[in-house]
Queue: 2 jobs
Job 1
Amino acid sequence: MTIFDHLMAGALPASFVHQDEECVAFMDINPITRGHVLVVPRKSVATLDELDADLRGHLWEVARRVGVAQRQALGSLAQHLLVNDGKGASQTVPHVHIHVIPRYGGDTLRTVTRLIWHISLLAAKRRPRENGRDALEALAQRIAAAMPATGG
Ligand code: 5GP
């Protein structure tokens, strides 16, 4: 079981923005930028190769919709969609996930620095920190309320 399996089972707290039969999306506990969301399949495998093509497509579509909702709810300008697809790519949680990382005006230096940190080997030694559950929950509710319908 991965930490994400425990979150999906409700055994640990998480702030969800989306849940369906195939996947969930919730706030990253240690966000690179404000509103950073992870899209995670319920199937507990480490890499995109281990998912079937329909599920891969569904995850990317949910990630796209999360980006729409972040722009609408948080005023972000655009977003990075990032997958550390395996341990050799500095993946720290061995359960495939798409990072949806919003970008705001004037945030280039800070965001790029944090992104490099995230994909560096140092990230594996970093302990996730609880970044304020109330704040994460408030952001999650705003993003969830702005999620467009499928295809929207
Ligand atoms: P990776 O380095 O595997 O691509 O990213 C794993 C992500 O999971 C990190 O951004 C980290 O902050 C996040 N993460 C790790 N543990 C938890 C947790 O318990 N809850 C949440 N919401 N995110 C987590």
Note: The radius of gyration is 14 Å.
Job 2
Amino acid sequence: MTDFTMKKDADGVAIVTWDVPGKSMNVLSLEGAAELGGLIDEALADEAVKGIVITSGKADFAGGMDLNVIAGMKQGGAQGVFDGVMGLHRLLRKIELAGMDPKTRAGGKPIASALPGTALGIGLELPLSTHRIFAADNPRARIGLPEIMVGIFPGAGGTTRLTRKLGAMMAAPFLLEGKLSDPKKAKAAGLIDEVAEDPVAAARAWVLSAKDADLVKPWDAKGYKMPGGEPFHPAGFMTFVGASAMVHGKTMGVYPAAKALLSAVYEGALVPFDQALKIEARWFTKVIMNPSSAAMIRSLFINKGALEKGANRPDAPDQTVRKVGILGAGMMGAGIAYVSAMAGIEVVLIDARQDAAERGKAYSENLLDKAISRKKATEEKKAEVLGRITATTDYAALEGCDLIVEAVFEDPAVKAEVTARAEAVIPQDAIFATNTSTLPISDLAKASKRPEQFIGIHFFSPVDKMALVEIIKGRETGPRAVAKALDFVRQIRKTPIVVNDARFFYANRCIIPYINEGVRMVAEGVNPVLIENAAKLMGMPLGPLQLVDETSIDLGVKIAKATRAAMGDAYPDDAVDEVLFWLADQGRLGRKSNAGFYAYDEAGKRQALWEGLDAKYPRAGEQPDLHEVQHRLMFAQTLEAVRALEEGVLEDIREGDVGAILGWGFAPWSGGPFSWLDMLGAARAARICDDLTARHGARFATPALLREMAARGDSFYDRFGAKRQAA
Ligand code: NAD
């Protein structure tokens, strides 16, 4: 297998083409890196070669590092990772110095990169080591260093080179936020050098005309000063002070990668380039050896990707959706219509009244207008997308729909009526999906003549922003309905999880106990500031009280009443209800009423926690320790996830982890609830649960599965991860 090939032409240009066999996207493996190194050596040694162009044989340049490389390096422990990374640094440094005289910096061979499309991670770090980067004018191409998004940072010189190229301040969005740009924006930002119609031709022309001085990177030239100032200069100093505060504010100290990245940038800026690379490698090693980065890569990259590619799709023929009927043009229906039309699917958007249907369509118009004002869409695109949406009250328009998504009021009778009306029109083989958030799918399926073609497709609000879609199998749902739902989710580019039918399915089932635990602590007199901060310091994006304000307190009341009606005497949450019902009675319904657990100003901006809480629920004299509050909030969610697994609602822990992060923002640094439990270890987790149970009650009772795993020394991924992946 050769990943890189080289052709030398009559003008003395060696074209090195990266084209990993059998893959649609290039990724760098250690073998690939060795091949590239060999070809560079050969070209540098060959007198007939005047310059080198590195390009790709595929539509894109490269997607990043082959993740097996990191796994392989880790087998050698920290030293293995460090040595592996230093090997990459040597390769890229060889490209950068290109055989030039170390003293005079003369006599090197020009090396340019030509990117036909996307260049991510090492796919940009490699070009950054070349002397000039040309990219095709391909607006779909994404260029950048997204490593931070999966809990690591650019460790093949990208951090050091970009900081020296742009300065710490200008490099920050690319390094700290993983910002990606199209080629034109990447050029404007200084990430790449030129956008060309034919980047290989342009790169070729450049290497043939390049002078010695064109090959010397600023940091290898005499008198180099970092743009924006080094850390010990007043301007640079301010950048680092600000960046440290910003990183800590955003990450709450729970993401090791952001902090390590900043250290690598700061320390690297104080020393010569080659030493800075070594420092980068040390911090990178530290991050790679941290369990958080492994868990994040596993959940947010490997498993998320696997689920999107259909890891749990039943074996059924292609079920691509061509025409979708959406029943109910309210908040959810309108959002589902938008994402479907954006994906090129024809949409019939039905509501009881024509004006409601039109309002639902206007939602898409609004979003497209906003996109146009931000230059993310054009008038033509808007016309095309809106042209796909028919807003009507006429069920006859559903003829020919191969999928229905029902999003009418949360009322079984209304849902039953629209199910029957739609089924009278749609083809026999169409799939009918409901977007209910609380009603059992198997019960709603009773209104269908074809229950094996009836399924839950549960979106989260706002539909256009939320990445997760929960697919729920009713008792009689057949495999083709699951395949259809998965193919639909793939078309609209979201991430699916497939779960079985049970109260609140998976995500809401876990998020409700989190909110409830926070509210319960308010009733106990725990300082609400402590509750909120404890959650954030565990990496939860919103504290439980802010979350209930956002989703609305009356919704909490509605859910509480319905749950109590269903559970009767077994209902465990009276203490929670007392707080929620009291707030609702005061008209404090959360953000939407500008009053809730928090106070809001007239413009709707959230202020401090509402002082009235203290008067009603006086602070307990003795406040719990921070860890106690954190354990209560984390185990409230996590134990529910374990119970969902025990009960067979979840069939795959990968879905449990990915769904938790994308669905309700479960501490992403942890990789999800199962990854978090694995980090703690089952024995320690069980001990904490026993302890919480003794003090706070049976809702923290150690699940039998966890206890058994503790006894055997099992981890969730050892026990359930590999089995599923092999299946
Ligand atoms: P909504 O009240 O905003 O919209 C419901 C729409 O259905 C309204 O426009 C209404 O006119 C229409 N409708 C009612 N009866 C109809 C009928 N007989 N024929 C045609 N249209 C009819 O509600 P929503 O928030 O969009 O929720 C819709 C569904 O999605 C509910 O089942 C809800 O549980 C579920 N859901 C909501 C959320 C959320 O965050 N709001 C999230 C996931 C799922």
Note: Residues 399 and 426 are 5 Å apart (CA to CA).
